[in-house]
């Protein structure tokens, strides 16, 4: 069960090699979390991540999970929940893609959409049902400010995150009053392996800063968290900007 501050004792990470997810796991282990499940494609990186978290004192398990195989989600995730209650699920897998290539190769674009949206819908619903059966827990969904308004530079990724964000909002409404808390996290540009080599956007942040915001959001039982917080105002302005003006921005 969660402690008095809303922090979890047990954590399931979907996207077990995500730098943001692992920074969040490290922060939560330092506070309260004792059992961690890292779900992802079997790889040396997944095992290395598990070993690092074990070194912090957590009981860490890995589970083979593929966002692109929704037919396996109920069985795979069901086995995790069968081992005991999960206080928090962190849905953190995602694919940035390559906008120029993805426009030329529609199947590559489909892979981005299926990972970021279809896979997340499937896994999110499976976990939401399990959390509801427990009667408690948090589902934390890693969205992105890219989903607030599609930009020419990354509209394929942005549209997939827009779908994920809308799904998470609706799921949060559907679960209101059940004891299950859905929190959407909207980071801006985060300095990770995924964004290495890309031009850094204003208000860029780090995995550790996102982890700090997630912890604060859990304590406050927030429904939406922006990282950094100033992006809430920036994106509100961009969202309402006339389309002709928006097109001329160097973004």
TrEMBL record:
InterPro entries: NAD(P)-bd_dom_sf, Sc_DH/Rdtase_CS, SDR_fam. The keyword Oxidoreductase applies. PROSITE patterns: ADH_SHORT. It holds the Pfam family adh_short. The keyword Oxidoreductase applies. It comes from the Bacteria. One of its GO terms (molecular function) is oxidoreductase activity. Keywords: Oxidoreductase. SUPFAM superfamilies: NAD(P)-binding Rossmann-fold domains. Belongs to the short-chain dehydrogenases/reductases (SDR) family. PANTHER family: 5-KETO-D-GLUCONATE 5-REDUCTASE (PTHR43669), DECAPRENYLPHOSPHORYL-2-KETO-BETA-D-ERYTHRO-PENTOSE REDUCTASE (PTHR43669:SF6). This is Short-chain dehydrogenase. It comes from Streptomyces azureus.
């Amino acid at each position: 069960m969660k402690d008095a501050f809303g922090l979890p004792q047990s954590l399931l990470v979907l996207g077990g090699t995500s730098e943001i997810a692992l920074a969040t796991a490290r922060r939560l282990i330092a506070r309260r979390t004792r059992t961690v499940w890292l779900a992802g494609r079997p790889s040396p990186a997944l095992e290395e991540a598990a070993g690092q978290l074990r070194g912090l004192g957590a009981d860490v398990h890995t589970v083979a999970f593929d966002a692109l195989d929704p037919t396996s989600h109920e069985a795979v995730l069901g086995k995790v929940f069968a081992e005991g209650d999960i206080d928090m699920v962190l849905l953190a897998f995602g694919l940035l893609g390559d906008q120029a290539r993805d426009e030329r190769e529609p199947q590559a674009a489909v892979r981005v959409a299926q990972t970021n949206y279809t896979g997340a819908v499937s896994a999110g619903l499976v976990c939401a049902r399990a959390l509801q059966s427990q009667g408690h827990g948090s589902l934390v969904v890693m969205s992105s400010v890219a989903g607030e308004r599609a930009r020419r530079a990354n509209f394929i990724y942005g549209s997939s995150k827009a779908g994920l964000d809308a799904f998470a909002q609706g799921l949060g409404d559907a679960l209101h009053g059940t004891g299950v808390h859905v929190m959407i996290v909207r980071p801006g540009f985060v300095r990770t392996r995924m964004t290495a080599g890309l031009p850094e956007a204003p208000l860029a942040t780090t995995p550790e800063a996102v982890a700090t915001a997630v912890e604060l959001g859990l304590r406050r039982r927030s429904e939406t968290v922006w990282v950094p917080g100033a992006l809430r105002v920036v994106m509100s302005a961009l969202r309402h900007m006339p389309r002709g003006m928006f097109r001329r921005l160097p973004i």
